[in-house]
Structures are given as structure tokens and as C-alpha cells.
Amino acid sequence: MAQQRLDEIRKVRIEKLEKLQEKGINPYPSTVAGKPLPISDAQSKMGKKVGAVGRVMGWRRHGNVVFSDLKDESGQIQLWFQKDNIKKNYELVKLLDIGDFIYAEGEVTKTKAGETSIDVSKVQLLTKSIRPLPSTWYGLKDEEARYRQRYVDLILNDDLKDLFRRKAIFWQSMRDFLIEKGFLEVETPALETTAGGADASPFSTHHEALDIDLYLRISMGELWQKRLMVAGFEKTFEIGRQFRNEGLSREHLQDYSQMEFYWAYANYKDSMALVEELYKHVAKAAFGKLKFEIGEHKVNLSKKWGRIDYTGTIKEKTGVDIAKASEADIKKKLKSLGVSFDKNDSKGRLVDTLWKQVRREISGPVFLVGHPVEVSPLAKRMDDNPDFVERYQVIIAGSEMGNGYSELNDPIDQAERFEEQQKMRDEGDEEAQMHDDDFVRALEYGMPPTTGFGVSERLFSFLADKPVRETVLFPLLKPER
After folding, report:
1. Residue 50 exposure: Cα atoms within 13 Å on the Cβ side
2. Span 41-81, pLDDT tens digits
3. What is the pLDDT of residue 428?
4. Which end of the chain is more exposed for a tag (fewer CB within 10 A), N or C?
């Protein structure tokens, strides 16, 4: 029945389209026949003649008078069509529908009901809408329909538009902050012969001209930006898209935006201080506050952020001392918690899986420190305890919201860790890192002490208290059948 009703409406609108063309009216002109103001500005021009453009969102006929709602990106205003006032354009008005784009011109006035309106004396059709909009009251309720027809969802949902304006501010404020701190924005390859800089499964593709297989990057140019440190740059950052061929969840997508910075002559402690300042700046700019309710967690970013120990926290929450526990011990604990894992997982991978269960209870904001080397193949070892590395993660609302460390710049140590990671890949761990000979060669030329940090758009989705797919304009979906 719904499809039948839709077909009937489309048929009527197409008939109107044909009538417009018979009258010599172009239903899709390229030029606006006036100089429109944003509706938010037009509303303040009481008693003056103005022009406005937008989409027709309401239509109420009372005899020879029609009231309509015109909406643009800045706001909404009522249009008042009186037959005697609009004269020859009145025939056009009878062929308009909700969803059409029009230009309306007339004096800004108030109706008897006291509503600010444009008393229209001239109207131009800019785009004829063939398909009706869903009811603004009921909208698109099905989640997949909302994501698939995001353009309609955005028409009907001003709060959703505001969410993406906030997201733009989120990234721009991050960019501005880093530039103000002396960082240089760079662009590194999105197609790589070796996917490096993270533990993740990459997407693969083929370059026809070079006849080589390539990977879409899984980090924001981590190994490239560290090559820039070798080259003599001292502060760089990149904001862009990266891709991981992994599962969907409330917190994860396959392609998403990420920022990573690299800072020479600084270590992970310097980085932590900068990141705390960065997060407070970005949250205030995008949301106007530093206190958030995220799911069941209450998070106050304004306080001084504490630190918790990786090994100590896991032991406190689970009773497992990962420094002494065997792979079998950790598997036994994971089974008791009902957590799945791959039988080929290394100890480092098992420990990481256990930690992800523990972190759910931590509201933060806190810095997690004291990571074992098994879970950090690119981080520098601690001088006083080489089984652990100079790494930190930002924990907010039970999840990781950023990852940084003092970068490993010992080429021999790096080569050995790459070899260990490659063995893990050969044994079936598709997320283990690939051996990058050129990166090791770059380190052999010498990279200064460097700290790096990365954060994805998941931080924005958490601060907005939304699933990450909700904060993406056009989430990836299977094609309609």
C-alpha cells in the first residue's frame, strides 16, 4: 500500500511538471531571479522587501490564500501567498508542493496571528520535487533507512545537522590547536606497499599501471611521519581517512577519520601533557563544556587527569598478573569471563583482549601507562624496566580514546620486533604488523627522540554520546537488493 501511494503521488507530481513545461516554466533553472538573503537575516527586515530561497516544508491552503513554510540552512520563515498580491504567479503557486525549492520575494510583515511572514509578490520555482518527503513528525524511523537515505534524514532532523556542524568544529579546533603549537600539517600516502603503524587487518587493492598489490593505510601515516622526523622535521601532524578491514560495532567502522602527530625531542610524558590540553580545548570548542554523560559514565575533563598502571589494573580487576601468567592462564580467565579469542593469538594479543574487558569499568579521564612490550611493537622500552614501554592510552567512558608513546628509534630493536610480528602473521594473525625494511633503513640513518600520538573520530562520537555510525554522514551499507 505504501508503494502504491508513493507511485500515485509521483504520478501527480510528474503531471504538474508537465503542466509547468507546457506553460513555458523551466522546473530546473540554473539562475535565481533575485538576490536572496539568508532566512535568518530576512526575518529581521520587518516592513522591507526581501528575497529568500529554500525548500518548501509546509503547505496550508485557505481559499485564495496559501501559507507555506520556507526553510534554508539558516532558518525557517512563513510565506503568505495572496491571489491578489501575487497575481500572474498564482497559477504557478497551485503547481507547487512540499519539497520544492523556490525563490520568494515580498515584504516582511506579520499575519493576524502575529507570525513573521513574507507577503509574497513574486515566486520562482528552482527545483520541482518528484518524490514526497516523509512526515516531519514521523520522519524515518528505521535505522537502516535513515543511514541509506541520509539526505532525507538531514532534511527532517535539524539536531542531526547541528551534530555534523559540531564535528566540523571538532576537527578544525584540533587542527588550529596543533598549528598554534608549531606543528606542520602534512599528507602521507593512503596507498602503501606495506600496511604499517598499527595492529589491524588492511584492505587490499591492485594498481593496474604498476601491476602491484597495495594496501589502504591502517594508520595516519605513522611510519611516514617518523621518516619525516629522520628527514629533519620536528613537529608534524595529519588528519585524514584510514581503513581497517575489521568488524562493525557501536565504536568501530572500517573507514574513519584519524589525527596523528609526531614531535621530535619530546617523550611520552611531554605528549600526555599536550594531549590533555588538546582534549580540553577541542571539547570546549565543539561542545561548549567539559563535563559529559556518556552511557553510564560521568566524565569530567576539566580536572587533572590521573594515571593507572596496565599490569596493576588488570591484576586488581581480574586477579591475573600478566607479568607471570602463561598463555594458558590468560585463556582460562578469558573463558571464565565469556570472552572469545582466536586459538592462534599470541600472549600479547590475549593480554590486550583481557585488558579490553577491564577498561569497560573505568570512567576516566585517565592515562593508562606501563604497557608490556608484547602489546606495543613500535614503542620505546623503559630504561629501568625493558619488558615495558613508554606508552599511554587515554581512557574515557570505558574505552580507549587515543594512543601515544615514545617512539622506538633503535633500528636493531625495531627490526627484531618486526620479525616477531611477521612470525605472528605467518602463523595466522592477520592483524600483526608487516615487516617494513625501508622503515628500518630510515631508522639506521638516525631518528631523534620522538613521541607520537593518534586519536580517531570515536572521541567525537563518545563526547556526543552517539554510536559512531550515527556521527558519520554516509555510513557504509550493503547495496539494496
Report:
1. 23
2. 999 999 999 999 999 999 998 888 899 999 999 999 999 99
3. 72
4. C
Identify whether the C-beta of residue 243 lies closer than 8 Å to the C-beta of residue 203: yes
For the stretch 399-426, pLDDT in tens is 999 999 999 999 998 898 888 877 877 7
Considering the four listed CATH numbers 3.20.20.10, 3.30.70.240, 3.30.930.10, 2.60.120.10, the one that applies to the domain covering 155-305+364-471 is 3.30.930.10
Over the stretch 278-319, which tens digit does the pLDDT of each residue have?
Answer: 999 999 999 999 999 999 999 999 999 999 999 999 999 999
Q: Which among 196, 237, 239, 238 is positioned nearest to 218, based on CA atoms?
A: 196
Please state the three-class secondary structure of 378-438 as a single string.
CECEECCEEEEECEEEEEECCEEEEEEEEECCCHHHHHHHHHHHHHHHHCCCCCCCCCCHH
Whole-number Å distance between alpha carbons of 218 and 38? 42
CATH architecture, range 2-133: Beta Barrel (2.40)
Buried b (16+ CB within 10 A) or exposed e, 461-478: bbbbebebbbbbeebeee
Which stretches within 260-346 are classed as H helix? 268-287, 310-318, 327-337
Q: Residue 347 to residues 76, 332, 444: CA-CA distances in angstroms?
A: 59, 13, 29
Q: In the chain, where are the structural domains located?
A: 2-133, 155-305+364-471
Are 395 and 272 within 8 A, CB to CB? no
pLDDT surpasses 50 at 137: no
Task: Return the sign of the alpha-carbon dihedral for residues 197, 199, 200, 201.
Answer: positive
Tens-digit pLDDT profile for residues 197-254: 777 888 999 999 999 999 999 999 999 999 999 999 999 999 999 999 987 776 778 9
